[in-house]
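Entry under discussion copied across for reference:
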Amino acid sequence: MAQPPDDFPQHMFEAAVEFAILAIRTLILINGAAVIALLTFVGQVWANDQHNGSAMAHILFWPLLFFLAGLILAVITCLLAYITQMITTEHGAGAIPPLSKKIRLFAIMASVLSIAAFSAGAVLTATGVAG
Protein backbone atom coordinates (compact mmCIF):
# COMPACT_ATOMS: atom_id res chain seq x y z
CA MET A 1 0.00 0.00 0.00
CA ALA A 2 1.33 3.43 -0.93
CA GLN A 3 2.26 5.88 1.80
CA PRO A 4 0.64 9.33 1.74
CA PRO A 5 3.04 12.20 1.02
CA ASP A 6 4.67 13.95 3.97
CA ASP A 7 2.44 17.01 3.54
CA PHE A 8 -0.75 14.92 3.61
CA PRO A 9 -1.87 16.14 7.09
CA GLN A 10 -1.40 19.75 5.99
CA HIS A 11 -3.51 19.16 2.86
CA MET A 12 -6.22 17.49 4.92
CA PHE A 13 -6.25 20.42 7.38
CA GLU A 14 -6.53 22.91 4.52
CA ALA A 15 -9.37 20.88 2.99
CA ALA A 16 -11.19 20.83 6.34
CA VAL A 17 -10.84 24.61 6.63
CA GLU A 18 -12.21 25.06 3.09
CA PHE A 19 -15.23 22.87 3.91
CA ALA A 20 -15.85 24.88 7.10
CA ILE A 21 -15.71 28.15 5.16
CA LEU A 22 -18.17 26.76 2.61
CA ALA A 23 -20.52 25.59 5.36
CA ILE A 24 -20.48 28.95 7.15
CA ARG A 25 -21.06 30.86 3.90
CA THR A 26 -23.93 28.53 3.07
CA LEU A 27 -25.55 29.07 6.48
CA ILE A 28 -25.32 32.83 6.07
CA LEU A 29 -26.64 32.63 2.51
CA ILE A 30 -29.65 30.41 3.13
CA ASN A 31 -30.79 32.20 6.28
CA GLY A 32 -30.17 35.66 4.83
CA ALA A 33 -31.95 34.78 1.59
CA ALA A 34 -34.91 33.41 3.56
CA VAL A 35 -35.20 36.68 5.52
CA ILE A 36 -35.09 38.72 2.31
CA ALA A 37 -37.59 36.43 0.58
CA LEU A 38 -40.10 36.59 3.43
CA LEU A 39 -39.83 40.35 3.76
CA THR A 40 -40.24 40.78 0.01
CA PHE A 41 -43.23 38.43 -0.06
CA VAL A 42 -45.00 40.16 2.83
CA GLY A 43 -44.21 43.57 1.33
CA GLN A 44 -45.69 42.55 -2.01
CA VAL A 45 -48.85 41.13 -0.42
CA TRP A 46 -49.14 44.25 1.77
CA ALA A 47 -48.79 46.55 -1.26
CA ASN A 48 -51.69 44.78 -3.01
CA ASP A 49 -53.97 44.37 0.00
CA GLN A 50 -53.15 45.73 3.46
CA HIS A 51 -55.61 43.42 5.22
CA ASN A 52 -54.12 40.27 3.66
CA GLY A 53 -50.63 41.70 4.09
CA SER A 54 -51.24 42.21 7.80
CA ALA A 55 -52.56 38.67 8.16
CA MET A 56 -49.57 37.29 6.25
CA ALA A 57 -47.17 39.31 8.41
CA HIS A 58 -48.70 37.73 11.52
CA ILE A 59 -48.49 34.24 10.00
CA LEU A 60 -44.85 34.69 8.99
CA PHE A 61 -43.67 36.42 12.19
CA TRP A 62 -42.22 33.28 13.81
CA PRO A 63 -40.63 31.91 10.64
CA LEU A 64 -38.94 35.28 10.14
CA LEU A 65 -37.62 35.20 13.70
CA PHE A 66 -36.24 31.69 13.17
CA PHE A 67 -34.49 32.74 9.95
CA LEU A 68 -33.06 35.81 11.72
CA ALA A 69 -31.86 33.61 14.59
CA GLY A 70 -30.27 31.25 12.06
CA LEU A 71 -28.51 34.19 10.42
CA ILE A 72 -27.23 35.52 13.74
CA LEU A 73 -26.02 32.04 14.75
CA ALA A 74 -24.23 31.67 11.41
CA VAL A 75 -22.43 34.98 11.96
CA ILE A 76 -21.54 33.88 15.51
CA THR A 77 -20.17 30.66 14.01
CA CYS A 78 -17.96 32.73 11.73
CA LEU A 79 -16.74 34.87 14.62
CA LEU A 80 -15.98 31.83 16.78
CA ALA A 81 -14.14 30.15 13.90
CA TYR A 82 -12.01 33.27 13.54
CA ILE A 83 -11.25 33.38 17.27
CA THR A 84 -10.37 29.67 17.23
CA GLN A 85 -8.01 30.20 14.31
CA MET A 86 -6.33 33.20 15.94
CA ILE A 87 -5.79 31.41 19.26
CA THR A 88 -4.35 28.38 17.46
CA THR A 89 -2.10 30.55 15.28
CA GLU A 90 -0.82 32.58 18.21
CA HIS A 91 -0.17 29.44 20.23
CA GLY A 92 2.04 27.93 17.51
CA ALA A 93 3.98 24.73 18.20
CA GLY A 94 1.69 22.68 15.94
CA ALA A 95 -0.69 21.67 18.75
CA ILE A 96 -4.23 22.93 19.15
CA PRO A 97 -4.64 24.62 22.56
CA PRO A 98 -7.50 23.41 24.81
CA LEU A 99 -9.21 26.83 24.74
CA SER A 100 -9.26 26.70 20.96
CA LYS A 101 -10.89 23.26 21.07
CA LYS A 102 -13.60 24.53 23.44
CA ILE A 103 -14.38 27.54 21.28
CA ARG A 104 -14.47 25.30 18.21
CA LEU A 105 -17.14 23.17 19.92
CA PHE A 106 -19.23 26.29 20.55
CA ALA A 107 -18.82 27.20 16.87
CA ILE A 108 -20.02 23.76 15.84
CA MET A 109 -23.00 24.02 18.20
CA ALA A 110 -23.86 27.47 16.80
CA SER A 111 -23.76 26.09 13.26
CA VAL A 112 -26.01 23.15 14.17
CA LEU A 113 -28.44 25.55 15.85
CA SER A 114 -28.35 27.73 12.72
CA ILE A 115 -29.36 24.72 10.62
CA ALA A 116 -32.10 23.88 13.12
CA ALA A 117 -33.39 27.48 13.05
CA PHE A 118 -33.45 27.45 9.25
CA SER A 119 -35.31 24.13 9.24
CA ALA A 120 -37.85 25.38 11.79
CA GLY A 121 -38.34 28.57 9.80
CA ALA A 122 -38.86 26.61 6.59
CA VAL A 123 -41.41 24.26 8.17
CA LEU A 124 -43.30 27.11 9.83
CA THR A 125 -43.32 29.05 6.57
CA ALA A 126 -44.67 26.09 4.63
CA THR A 127 -47.39 25.35 7.18
CA GLY A 128 -48.28 29.04 7.58
CA VAL A 129 -48.58 29.72 3.87
CA ALA A 130 -50.45 26.45 3.26
CA GLY A 131 -52.96 27.50 5.88
